[in-house]
Structure formats: C-alpha cells, structure tokens
Amino acid sequence: MVHRNNMVIMILLILVLSFSSPVIAKEDGKFNSSNGCSCHSSSSTSTTPTHNFPSSYTPSTSYSIQIGLTGGVSGTKGGFSLEVSQGTLSTGISIGSVQINSAANQATHTTSNYRSWGLYWESPSSGSGNVIFELAVLSANGNGGTSGDSWGTISPFTSLETSSQNTPPEASSLSFNTQNPTKISGLSINYTFFDADGDLEQGTEINWKINNISSPNVDNMTSIPNNLITKGDLWEVAVTPNDGIDFGEIISEGPVEIHNSPPSISEININPENPNDDDNLLLNYEYFDLDNDLEQEHEIHWYLDGVRQNEIDNMVNISSLMIRYGDTWQISITPYDGSDYGETVWSNLIIIGSSNTPPTINVDYSRYNIKTIDDIFLSFDFFDVDGDQIQNTEIMWYKNSLNMPNLDNLNIIPNSSTEKNEVWNFSIRVSDGLAWSDWFHSANIIVNNTPPVVISSMISSENITTADNISISWQQYDEDGDSEINSQIKWFLDGIWIPDFDNLITIPSSFTTRNQIWNFQITPNDGEDFGEIFMSTPILIENAAPIESIIFLESGYLGLISPMEEIIFEDTNEIFSIENLTLVIGYKDVDDDQISFKISWSRNGFHVPELDNQSHIPKNLLSPGQSWSVSVLASDPFGLSSLVSKSVIISNMPPEAIMNDISESLIPGSMTLFNASSSVDMDGTINSWIWTINNKEIYGMSFEIFLDSGQHDIKLTVIDNLGLSHTIQSIINVDTIYTVDNLIINLDGANINLEWSWNGPSTDFNIYRSTSPINSVIGLSPLDEYPEWGDPIPTPLTPIAFTSDKSWSEEAPVAAKVYYAVTTFSDGKEVVWISADNNMISIDASSAANSTYLNKSDNSSISIISSILLMFIGISSIGINLFLRRNRK
C-alpha cells in the first residue's frame, strides 16, 4: 500500500513537471513559474532557494512562510514563484512585496528590489492528504535585461498531513426559546456544547429552514431577526458542533409555527387634559399590532368614581351632560385583532374641574436683607369675580429647591429653621371652594450672615502695673456659629487714639508708665461682616513691684549687689568648701524706685540668723554635702516687693591619688615598696587605698611585695569619706633578675658543702635551709594565689648564714634530704627571688648518720637539738596552715 501511494505521488509529480511550460518572468512577478524561467539566461553562479515549508502540517492551521535565496549573481534584485497543491496562500505581513493569484494557490513578487519574502499559508481541512510545494527563485544582476541572471528551483517539497487524535464535539439539549413563538417573543435557540478533549467551541454550523426551504441568510445565527418573523411561518433548525478541528453529529429541532402577536394600546389620553364640568370628554388612543392585523372589536369601559358605567361601553365621546364638577373618571381599553385580545390599558384619573372663575391672589413677603436672626413671613389678599369667599389656602415652602413639607401652609418661617446662605422660596394658591387660583411663586429669599457681637472682654490682670503687659481677649457671639476672623482693635491712651497699636492684642509694659489710663475698642468680624463697636472700661497703670531679682551663688571672696544690666550672670555648676560661698544679686525696678534688700540664709533647712543680710558665707562654715539656700526680698518705697530664692549643695572634691616613684627604688628581684601616703583630699579624708597590680587587688596605704621580671600594670584608687574616688595608673618594667650561678652541693662525711659563682659586683650572700623545697624566702605574697586546702602555706625563712665568700659548708643538721637557697644583695637590698634552676639546690644527707662525727657525744646534743627544732618548725607550719584555713572559711 505504501509503495502504491509513493507511486501515485511520483506520477503526480511527473505530470506536474510535464505540464509545466516555460514562462517569461517580469519585474512585477510572474505566476506559473515555480519550475524555473527560460527567459533569463543562467549565469555560471548557481542560486539556491531557501524556505521554511513545514515537513508536516496540522489541518486548518495558519503557517508563516519565509522564502529567500543564497548564492547567485551579486546585487540585491531578485524574484520568486511559488505554487502549492492545497491550502490557501495570503500575503499577511511580508518581508518583501508579495502578490497572490485569485485561486490563492500561487504567489510571486511585485517588485524586483528584494531577495527575501514572507507570506502565510492556511493548511487544508482534515483529510486533505499531503501537500506539494514548488518554488523557483531568481537572483538578477539588475541590468534591465534577461542576460547574466541566475535562477534555481527546489525539488517538489511534500508536507505530510498530521493525523488528528481529536474527539469530535457533541451538541445536545437543542430547543427554541418558547414553544409558541410570536413576533413579540422572537425566535432563538439554546443548546449545550460538549467536547471530551476540553476544546472550545469554534466553527459550529447552524442551518435554518423556513417553510421547509433553506434560509442561508440567517445561517449560524442563534436568534432570528424580528423583521424576518411572520405569523404562520414554520421554522426548523439544525446544529453541527465544531471544536475548531472536527465537526460532530448534527442535531435538529422543529418545525415550530410562528403564532399571532396580541395587539397593544399606547398613547391613551382624554381631552381636554383638565376638563371642567361644561366640557365633553373625548377618548384618544393608538392601536399597534406587530403582525399588522387590523383592529377588530375592542372593549372600552368607562369608570365614574371607580364604578363601571355599562351603558356607555365602547363609546369614545362622553357628553358634558353626563359629567359634573368633582367627578373622577377613568377609562380601560382591551384591544382585539380578530385572533387575540391584548393587555388592558388604563388611562390616568381625570378629575372634573369647575367652570367657576377662580380667584386671583396678591402676595407680600419679606425678601430683602434677611439675616439668620430674622423670621421669613408672607401675607396675601385675594379677589374673586364671583364674590366667593376663600375656602382653602395652600402654601408650599422650599429650601435650596427642596420642598419642606413640615413647614407647608405656614405664614411665618421662624429663624430657628434657617441658616446662612440658604435660598428659600414659596408657592401659594387659594380656592373659593370650586376652583383654585393660579400658583404664585415667590422670588428667591436669601438668608444673609448675621454680624457678630462682643459679649465680654478680659484683660490679663485685674490690676495692671508698669511691669505688666496689657493683654486682652474677648468673647463674641455669632448667630451663625462663625469663628472670629479679622476683628479690628484700636487703643487709646488718656483718650487719644494710638494708630501704631492697631490690631495688637498685647501692649508691652515698656510702653506704659505709672498713672496712665488706657482703653481699647473692638469691632468684631466673622470673616464676612463687622459687628457693633465694643469699648472697654478704663485701665489704670499702677506702680509695679521691683522686678524679681536674678540671683546666683558662686565661689569667691565677697558677694555683689548691682543693677541687672551691669552683671554678667554665670551660675557656677559646682561650689566647694575650699572657698567662700558668695551671693550675686541683679535687681531692677521699672519705676526706677530705690530698692532695699533683706537676705536670709538657711543651712540644711534651718535658718542661720547670724548670716542675715550677708552677701557671702565664710568657707570655714562650709562642708561637703551641706545644703545652703538663700532668700532675697527686694522692696520699693511703696511697700511692694519681690522674693526670690536659690539653693545649692556644697560639692565634695574628689581626692587625689599619688603613689611613690616605684621605678626609682626598684631593684630587680628585691622587695618593692608601694606607698600612697602622699595622696590628699582637700575637703575631707581618705578612707581607702586600693592597689590593682596585674589585675590583683591589694588594700593598704603602703606595703612591700616582690615583682617578677617583665611588665607590670599598676593602678591606685583612693576613696574619700564621702565616697568620691580618684584613680591613677602606671606601667613599670622589671629588668632581668640576677642570681648566683653554677650552685653545686656535696656531702663530705657529715659536712655539706656549697659552692657557686657570681658575675656581678662584690656582694654578700644569705644562706637559707629547709627540709622542704624552697620556693620563696619571703612567705606568702599578696600577689600569690592562696594555696588549696591541704597544700602548705609558704612562710618566711630566716637565713642561717651570711657570707661574702662564694662557698659555705656546715655539718648536716639532719640525716635526711636538705634544701638550700643562696641570695645576693644589690644596693643594700636583698634579692629574694628563688629559682630552682639557679639559686636553690638540695642534697640527701641520710648517709651522714653513719659518719663518726655524728656519733661523737659532743655532737649528739647538737643533733638532738636540731631535730627538735626542725620538728617544731614542721608542727608550727601545720598548725598555722590549719588556723588560716579555718579563718578563711
């Protein structure tokens, strides 16, 4: 089967090629030339077509086709000719200029200025089979002739149809919008679309028939235009669903008959519009029928005061003899077209008026300069040609064009109902019992602003003195609730207006003098209008007390009392007891009166009478921590005074830490003196001395300790009796510590011999001995860590010998291991540093017990005494250790 299909394709290709005849190309394109062109001579340079034809296609799909060429003759001019066996070609958006033939199966260029082109190809519908593309391109040299050009073609290109796995859609539940359609209801359909693949509906076909004849002009419509619907026609419909890929099965509905449309009535009215009791009533209406049926036997019913009047049914004209003033008439009409009755339509209610001449009215009302405090009123009189009296009056009030029904029929609108800027008007009419007069409509009545009123004023003080500013305030009432804005103020001095002070609410005291009389005048304003002028009562400027003095306390010799402007005020932050406490007073009297002073001192809250009126406190009365306060009463000749007070606490001066110059007396390896006895406290005593040496605290004014060689951080803090402290810090360097070298020991019978070398200046040597290792000859130092429980506590050792030689010997004091240490002196001070590698050594003297020397009687007592002494030293060490441990806990 495959071979057969291939054979068929080959035959078709041969036929296509055999029927293709040479054609002549042109600059504006040439169809039927997809196999090449004989009119253009081919140059030696070959031209190769380029394209993007799909190797396979999906039915009913649009593809963008790009055509070009490579190689060929040089230049930019060229052309092409394309032919496709199936589908539809279109220009779309092209790179060059492209034209399509009428059959839409061939394309060529429109101008020779390009060598690349673009167009669109719409693939054929499903089941169309494979598609053949044939293409020829031309590269032209642009000489205006046919010589020297080059063209090339492709072998027929086959695009295979992609088999679809699509499931066709389904349509169901097809129905008309009504079972009895009319021109009124219209004719439309509803149906349900379903696609198992979830495809959207696309391309569904709807086919209509009218009276069993196809009606293609309405195909694919779901609703038939009303103008095509005619009573009595029979309609049927068929729906073929499509998902854009495949059609589903056809469903149909009908035929359905178009039924009669009932008629209707519009524009019903009774003339005249406002009939009187001497008018005939004439019915007018418009009949309408969508099917253009003529009006048949309609039903017209007349109702008088709600009761049907049977005797005048179907009449359109009622005589005035049948109506009277005050009647209420209404009409109903039910149209009929010979088949159906339409809906019943009712006219508006018609009330029969009177032929009586209505009265006329003359109105007077307040309309100008109405404020929010004013009522709005109206009055009227009337005239009736029939001599009738007024039976009814109707008044309607409007605020800002809105009716105010709660105020209707009032002659007066109280001001409580109005607000600023509202626009009021009214309408009024009267009735003589038979007829109403025409409405009278008033002009707009605008409610204007009510100016404010000053209701009270205040000044800053009841009694204004020359030291006081005159500050005023006032309260104003505004009927409209407006705030005070831009009120005017005028000031008067002794009855004379002072324009320079206009609109000031405060007159500075510098502009007033004793016994002046001031007034102020206020013209209130609410931002729109000025109110009535308000005049204050007179303001008498009285004598002022001396201005509150400015005082401050400082350390010095004597106090100072002087005018304010002559004093530079520099309040001292801290006052100490090493100087007098002095008072500085700066005074001023705005009336330039002579001022007297009373000064009162208190210490720790208690008055000190002996210091009254003194301007300083002697330093011998001051101590740190004391609280002193002073009160100064300044008085003028008129008995007015001012009182000021000031307090201060005497500050404590911190102590000054001073340590001795440790580096001056420092001898490496010897005890170093730390002395803080030179520290001072100017206003107290020093209670504590705290030394911190290499982060280890030691308490005491002075002491001696041993320092190893190297750098040491020294800090001294002193604390006085009030808790203030001062700290100094120093760094000292201890040079290398020199000891004896080459210390050796031997046992010669009962004698222990020591020898050493010394490279320093001439010195003496101390010899120390112990039955335990010697780590220190000075005992436990403040810088040493305290031993753990059970460990021995180092105790000071006493030298057993003093020599200037570099050797020394003694008889072995015990027949046991013995430890020796040798120290030197520098500048008269012992170098007490002990090093196990340099100046400490031990020997086992157990063999000395066999020596003849120890067996001699004269030595036995010495041995016994030495043993007892060593035993006592050991027991004492254990006892001291236990005692110190118990105290530490």
From TrEMBL:
Entries under InterPro entries matching the protein: Ig-like_fold, PKD_dom_sf
Stretch list, region Disordered: 33-55
Domain of life where this protein originates: Archaea
UniProt entry keywords in alphabetical sequence: Membrane, Transmembrane, Transmembrane helix
Transmembrane stretches, start-end: 864-884
Protein name per its UniProtKB record: PKD domain-containing protein
Organism name: uncultured Poseidoniia archaeon
Organism ancestry: Archaea, Methanobacteriati, Thermoplasmatota, Candidatus Poseidoniia, environmental samples
